[in-house]
Write a structure and sequence with these properties.
This protein is of the alpha/beta class and 314 residues long. The chain has 2 domains: 103 residues, 3-Layer(aba) Sandwich (Rossmann fold); 177 residues, NAD(P)-binding Rossmann-like Domain (Rossmann fold), CATH 3.40.50.720. It is 31% helix and 17% strand. The protein contains 10 helices and 12 strands. The protein has a 7-stranded parallel β-sheet with strand order 8-7-6-9-10-11-12. The longest helix has 17 residues. The chain is elongated, with a radius of gyration of 22 Å. The structure holds NADP nicotinamide-adenine-dinucleotide phosphate (NAP) and glyoxylic acid. Glyoxylic acid (GLV) binds next to loops. NADP nicotinamide-adenine-dinucleotide phosphate (NAP) binds next to helix 6 and strand 7.
Length: 314
Amino acid sequence: MPVHESAQPRIAFCCANTQPEPWLKGLRSAVPGAQVSVWEPGQAIADYAVVWAPPQAFFDEQTQLKAIFNIGAGVDALMRLRLPQGVPVVRLEDAGMAVQMAEYVCQSVIRFFRELDVVESSMRQAKWELRKPRRRKEFPVGVLGLGVLGQRVAQALSHFEFPVLGFSRSPKQVPGVQCFHGESQWMDFLARCRVLVNLLPLTTDTQGILNRQTLSSLMPGAYLVNVARGAHLVEQDLLDLIHSGHMAGATLDVFCEEPLPPQHPFWHEPRLILTPHTSARTLREDTIEQIAGKLAALIKGEKISGQVDLGAGY
Ligand code: NAP
Ligand code: GLV
């Protein structure tokens, strides 16, 4: 059954920290006949929602939604809300994010592997010093989460000939990647990783998964690249393991509190590379094109990909 047969779908736009005008213009041109408006309390009822971290009041008022489109890959902010029952939640799938994530993670892993931080620091002190080359086979990289982004990252890393391992909930086959899954293979996976890249969704199962026990199970001198969500990491555990020398460093793009507060100890730890949640940005044109395509398919009664499994939380 088509979810909505009107030729003039009403779309409510409710996205935190997002300039609405270019989105409204883009959505109007990509969804012919659509009535698109920024949601305000007490506003007219819509058929479809385009959201990023909306308030609960939005869903309390919008009682006739036929689908909810999230303009990001992660839906953890939505999963914390009371959502209308039986309404599909559709997340962003790639839409230009996977290549950004691949370039961000590869530069980070290569920076650690080639010790570019040490090299740069020597050069700044006018010291011409060569580092002993590290052996690639002693630098296995584990990618936690083998979904849309994790698979792209794992394959990009394998092109640089790092040994690449991957971990997911269900079994996977990814060319060039040694795949692990499920609880029984967890410790084996960790013990083989020198670098751990986190690309898991934030769910009740994965919150705090990057903790003392997990990080201590990596090879000595390990590195972490967290590009998923801040709440995956127990931040003090990482600092303790850096101070003990077990962890050699980390690249962190996401934090428990964002923006990272000025008094946070991360700012003063030189073995951390910090970026402001920017590893894979939502690209407006690609995102609008993906949403418009899926909306048209739903109207025709066709199946679409990227529907969130509300039970699993991603
Ligand atoms: P996805 O396609 O849904 O992939 C999620 C992967 O995680 C799947 O392989 C899934 O396993 C695995 N997984 C889920 N729960 C697990 C568990 N408990 N144990 C082991 N594996 C588990 O998601 P995606 O599009 O790749 O995005 C991943 C995350 O990246 C998003 O949720 C978001 O938080 C983050 N992100 C961050 C940025 C940024 O700028 N920092 C940008 C975009 C996205 P199965 O395959 O078996 O289901
Ligand atoms: C960004 O963090 C996203 O989930 O798309």
